[in-house]
Amino acid sequence: MQVGRSCGLSGSYVSLVERAKADGVSVVHLARLASVVGLDLTVRAYPGGAVLRDAGHRALLERLHAAISPTLGWRTEVPLPNPGDQRAWDAMILGKASIDHPAFRIGVEAETRPRDAQALQRRIALKRRDGGVDHVLLLLAATRGNRAFLRETVAAFAPDFLLTGRDAITALSAGRDLGGSAIVVM
To answer: Looking at the whole model, is its pTM more than 0.85?
Structure first.
């Protein structure tokens, strides 16, 4: 009763919320209830269902797709292979096995406006660990701001992305594996 009164809700409503029996509880009510009992409410959003891309992101991925060999497979929004994991690669480049070369999988992470280098590195490192790929291609839109971002953060990214963007595009346009990860600006 006291909790409900403290946040302007009835005791019976609070009881229903506590027992997960209240339908359509608003985030505002949950935040008020949490606050009264000394808790912070956090809410997260995860991708689900159909993905809507902004035009810039889609165009960036299409530029990369146009630059790779038609012998390579191309898929977009490829979920990570772990049950329940909501993350996905923006694109996946798939190379078929041949007599000379094993099959390969390259996860593509596309960024139109990167801002936080550390967060981006962490996200890519975790996806690389969990994502079932041989290499990662970080794809950046060719803007003045992104080039400045890359100049400022290249030392931090260098240990994980050893290939140049030019070498990566040369290999992919020939249908070959990268042999490592790369940052490509297009």
So the answer is: no
